[in-house]
Amino acid sequence: MHRRLAAALATPALALVGVLGTATAADAAPADKPQVLASWTQTSASSYNQWAAARANQGAWAAYGFDWSTDYCSSSPDNPFGFPFQNACARHDFGYRNYKAAGSFSANKSCRHPLHTRRPTHARQERGTQVSRRTGHRAG
Would you list the DSSP string of 78-117? Predict the structure, then answer.
């Protein structure tokens, strides 16, 4: 009797494990998620453009499980000296949240993802202008 009971309980248990195992594998992010994240958080204009296109079409990247939320860099101004920083802040938040979720960022370390100190560059790229480093005035 014990063997029949054990067999009766084992069959549904194995079926449940099979279903849960399949669901977990199907829910896993694609293996290239770290490479995609890295490619979208470089300091180049092409990296920014790729990230901006993906942000505009987040549904296409849903399988990756990226965190697209943003608070636009908390309390920093969005348009200091006439330069729009809102998209740069959204990208910075994207990198910060996703590197942290991947375990590549620790609150005990300073922020080291490539966008941390690059906001002025990205704001210029968004606007298509250049700023003189010496005078701080717009060149174009």
Answer: SSGGG---HHHHHHHHHHHHHHHHTT---TTS---STTTT
Residue with tokens 């994207």: 94
- Prediction pTM value: 0.59
- Write the pLDDT tens digit of every residue in 1-15: 555 544 554 444 444
Length of the chain: 140
**Whether 140 contacts 130, CB under 8 Å:** yes
Catalytic residue selected from 2, 92, 113, 116? 92
Instruction: Kindly report the backbone phi and psi dihedral angles of residue 49, in degrees, each rounded to the nearest multiple of 5, phi listed first.
Output: -65, -40
**Is position 122 annotated as part of the catalytic site?**
no
